[in-house]
Amino acid sequence: MILAAGEELADLSNTLVYSAMAVYAIAFLAFVAEWILGGRSKVARTAAALTGEGGEAAAVPAQAVPGVVVTKGGTTSVLERPKVVTRSGAPGRDDVPDGPGASGGDVRGDTYGRIAVSLTVLAFLLHLGAVVVRAVSVERGPWGNMYEFSTAFSMTVTGAFLAFLAARRNVRWLGLPLVTTVLLDLGLAVTVLYTESAQLVPALDSIWMWIHVPLAIVCGGLFYVGAISSGLFLLRDRHEAKGAAGEEAKGWSASVLERLPSSVSLDKFAYRINAAVFPVWTFTIIAGAIWAENAWGRYWGWDPKEVWAFITWVAYAAYLHARATAGWKGRKAAYLAIVGFVCFLINYYGVNIFFDSLHSYGGV
Amino acid sequence: MTDDTQQAEAKAGAEARRDAERSDDAEALAGLSTAPVDEEDGPRGGEGAGDGAAGAGSFGGRREPGARGALAWLGRECAGWARWFWRQLTSMRVALILLFLLALASIPGSMIPQDNVNAPLAEDFRERNPALSEFYETFQLFNVYSSVWFSAIYLLLFISLIGCIVPRAWQFVGQLRARPPRAPRRLSRMPAYTTWRTDAAPDDVLAAAQRRLRRRRFRADLREDGPGGAHVAAEKGYLREAGNLVFHLALVVMLVAFAAGRLWYSEGGKLVVQGEGFSNTLTQYDDFESGTLFDVNELEPFGFRLDEFHSDFSRESVDLGTPTLFRADVTWWDQEGAERAAEIEVNDPLHVGDSRVRLLGHGYAPVVTVTDAQGELAFHGPVPFLPQDTALTSTGVIKVSTYTGPDGEPDQLGFQGFFNPTYNIDAERGPHSTFPEPDLPVLTLNAFHGDLGVNSGLPQNVYQLDTSDMEQLRDEETGDLFRFNLVPGQSVELPEGMGTLTFDRLEQWASFQITTKAGNEWALASSLAAVVGLAGSLLLQRRRVWVRAFTGDDGHTVVEMASLGRTESAKVPEELADLAERLQPDAPLVPDEAAGTPAGTADTADTAETADTAETAEAAVDTAADTEEPAESAAAEGARP
Ligand code: HEM
To answer: Is B194 helix (H, G, I), strand (E, B) or coil?
Structure first.
């Protein structure tokens, strides 16, 4: 039950969400500034074309192993070399270096980028605070309805982004698309999806609520990062193909694409995320099935929510298969990854809103 | 000799060398995954080549005249096509397409109401869209997940899966027994490579390398054969392949468990009023269904009594009426008769042997007493009313079948109406409840007399009153239809001295679902095995490392190390670097006297070697370039049926 103190806390949580949105909005502007300033930088253009090292810095620092150097055939993607590359365009693609990042080496752009990241950290803390305070105010896991689910979902997206940054991955290019969607998601959450409902019906009150639902949120957040990378891979891949065909790419979009990591890196990044999340997603579905067995007496009943979880799972299985199948790597696999994420979205928004499902606890 | 022919010959030489290198590389790669050979784009020209060719099913060949010739030809053709079909079915490409189809085929079932998911909804849909429903019926769209076409897809997928997995499992066992494959001639062509010069003897270096690799749990093998001479060949990460096999096999087990669950199950419902009991025999169920192979005589012998039902609802404005607690306190007994107490909650069923007793719903049962016109007791007991909404506005009927009318003749009475735990009435909704707890419990009934139809032999729904042979009672004075409201403890006189009805008190009831299902343990075990296998398959790396040591032209020992991984991981080169570093104490580096070049380019000291590697690198790029075309088209051909 929400006590008076609970209601105050709920209000505090809402204030925190709005503050987080405000900071995200400023971070968004800073990211935009980074891309714009980076695009002006002449250095960036030429750097993109000339840098030999890109993301392919030698795996071993010379000091660590005196005199020993690991040379790699083009890329770390180990099988590329002896195999014929059927990926997309020319195999020379393997040697295309990663772009210099959003700032394109421009000093002011870089400063804005750093500001944007700092602001994202701040926004994330506010966001985290909002979720935690909400949990305290309703005295249960903060994922009982679509409002809470959406808030937690975008929090994991930002969290994943910052974690990659903290692990010194070259992912700042993800900042702009991620912050944009986080803002949209939060906007949707506070307007359309907002529910005060605090109580969980007994059917939802289970230990599996603490396993199944947070895992689904984390999977969603990471699949989203994977889908963005796959989408950017498709764009960058086409750009590189044009470049390889000798077409001179000009204009704003070319400048943006040039600053992204190479198609090979993007593809690999997306693959690693999706491959790592897939077992977790599998377990999420199994946890849901165990819960359903306890609550409804059957572990699988082809309820729309279950059906779409299954479709999502099959789509990602197809993606992983495609990566191991000649003629399906690269673009086709990337489309499958995006389809997989769209299925996830349908499962989340579509089923709650449009379908008759046992899971329609959405509270919209 | 003209320049042209010279060039042509040089070109042919280069071709031959590239071919040799290619097959060398392919050998190094072979079996790193046991994925079907025709899927690998690596080994070309080998057995894989024929497989991709479209229409490979026909052996063609000469057809001898006469019946025998025709027969022989036919047999050959059939065998050929069968083999071709099997090979297609068990190829990765077809598996991929079937997965795709499975996902697509699942979609309609989430949009069209399904008979076995939400039967009332499906029925409702049929009534509202008769024409469309007929079309749906034809394509089994109300039963997608048991339809012929859906079954066909997943059965084909699983046949493909078995056809794919069994040979792979064999192959994998073979690999576990075999030695890691020997090193290719040019280690420098491998994705990760390192080399340095040392003064340690080649044999010592190799022995040390083998020792160190083994310590890192590589399977390391000292080999003298191979194109490049003595070397250590090592491999690690077999668990990846094992994980993959476990995952796919677990999927098969899961499907079998699922099928078993559909053939051997029982599912029945029972509504129990507080204080009453249930024993697990077919006749006691309110409704019951079971799988084709389930034997109803096998029902677990047990019973239980509902001692008390607890429910609690939120009174906060935002979630007014949201339930916060449902709990049934029961006493149960098994065959031996020993009684035990248990609590059943929504997410926490009672397990008795293979059966599970699950709490499904709850409601109120007013306890009612009816006396007849003679003042005799005609009916007494709790009457369950069925909830219609979340505030437990409930409807129900009371049937009094042994009753004597004012005229002394046997008659029957029927009452029909509402029970509302928190009574309210408005013009729009009529009598209804505003809160699920009995704050103002009111029983609102209409009364009928006549023939209840209980003796007609037709099955009767206890919650419905068939008033076709009944007459509704009217108020004596006003002539209006007789209708009354009672709170607990109140009585009402029926018109024309027909007797009385008393609302004694209120009981709760709870409904239970009693199920058994075969294969649940198998489903759980296999799904968990699938997750573990999958994690192994996707997170582990399978890789090979080769170490070669030989005496170079300058008298120093040249150490070469290379590694090759199955997946795109940055860890493989990192691991090689680490291994190289660990080998340093056994094979200390001899600094390059030739040039003060930084470590990074140390290996360029040997000019001959440099030229060579540069050339190979170039060759690699251009082999890749000129094989691009054929590889693409081979893939395209393979995709054709
Ligand atoms: C029920 C349907 C199936 C599902 C859900 C499924 C799922 C998966 C997954 C998730 C992987 C891991 C991918 C990776 O290691 O990168 C995989 C790998 C694999 N699957 Fe399946 N699979 C199914 C059916 C099949 C079938 C029918 C075949 C045979 C044609 C097959 C052959 C393989 C092979 C050879 C690999 C290993 C690829 C590699 O070594 O990279 N699978 N499968």
So the answer is: strand
A-chain residue closest to B323, CA distance: A201
Q: Give SS3 for B525.
A: helix
Of B316, B325, B528, the CB nearest to A2: B316
SS3 letters for chain A?
Answer: CCCHHHHHHHHHHHHHHHHHHHHHHHHHHHHHHHHHHHHHCHHHHHHHHHCCCCCCCCCCCCCCCCCCCCEECCCCCHHHCCCCCCCCCCHHHHHCCCCCCCCCCCHHHHHHHHHHHHHHHHHHHHHHHHHHHHHHHHCCCCCCCHHHHHHHHHHHHHHHHHHHHHCCCCCHHHHHHHHHHHHHHHHHHHHCCCCCCCCCCHHHCCHHHHCHHHHHHHHHHHHHHHHHHHHHHHHHHHHHHHHHCCCCCCHHHHHHHHHCCCHHHHHHHHHHHHHHHHHHHHHHHHHHHHHHHHHHCCCCCCCHHHHHHHHHHHHHHHHHHHHCCCCCCCHHHHHHHHHHHHHHHHHHHHHHHHCCCCCCCCCC
- Residue A290 near chain B (CB below 8 Å): yes
Q: What is the rounded radius of gyration, in angstroms, for the C-alpha atoms of chain A?
A: 22
Please state the ipTM of this predicted complex.
Answer: 0.84
Q: Which amino acid is at B289?
A: E
A1 touches B: beta carbon within 8 Å? yes
Q: Is B206 exposed, middle or buried (0-12, 13-18, 19+ CB in 10 A)?
A: buried
| Residue ranges of B 210-249 with Cβ closer than 8 A to chain A | none
Give me the sign of the Cα torsion angle B43, B23, B576, B606.
negative
* Nearest neighbour of A84 by CB, restricted to B41, B99, B567: B41
Nearest residue to A43 via CA among A109, A108, A105, A111: A105
Per-residue pLDDT tens, chain A, 364 aa: give them.
444 566 788 889 989 999 999 999 999 999 999 988 887 665 444 444 443 333 333 333 333 333 334 444 333 322 222 222 222 333 456 667 777 777 777 788 889 999 999 999 999 999 999 999 988 888 788 887 889 989 999 999 999 999 999 998 888 999 999 999 999 999 999 988 887 766 666 667 778 888 999 999 999 999 999 999 999 999 999 888 888 787 776 777 888 888 888 888 899 899 999 999 999 999 999 999 998 888 777 899 898 889 999 999 999 999 999 988 877 878 999 999 999 999 999 998 878 777 666 554 444 3
Ligand 1: does its nearest atom lie under 6 Å from the Cβ of B35? yes
How distant is the Cα of B560 from the closest Cα of chain A, in angstroms? 10
Q: Is residue B160 in contact with ligand 1, taking CB distance under 6 Å?
A: yes
- Determine the residue type at B438: P
Phi, psi of B273 (to 5 degrees): -80, 145
- Nearest alpha carbon, ligand 1 atom 35: B35
Say what the pTM is: 0.80
Q: How far is CA B630 from CA A142, B41, B246, in A?
A: 56, 11, 35
**CA of A185 to nearest chain B CA: how many angstroms apart?**
24
Q: Is the CB of B394 under 6 A from ligand 1?
A: no
Name the 3-class secondary structure at B2. Answer: coil
B346-353 long-range contacts, CB within 8 A, separation 24+? B346/A202, B346/A203, B346/A205, B346/A295, B347/A202, B347/A203, B347/A205, B347/A206, B347/A208, B347/A291, B347/A294, B347/A295, B348/A294, B349/A294, B349/A297, B350/B304, B352/B300, B352/B302, B353/B300, B353/B302
Pick from B28, B94, B65: nearest CA to B638: B94
Ligand 1 neighbour A320 (Cβ under 6 A): yes
Residue B434 β-bridge partners: none
Inter-chain touch B527–A286, beta carbons under 8 Å: yes
**CA triple B556-A58-A255, angle to 5 deg:** 150
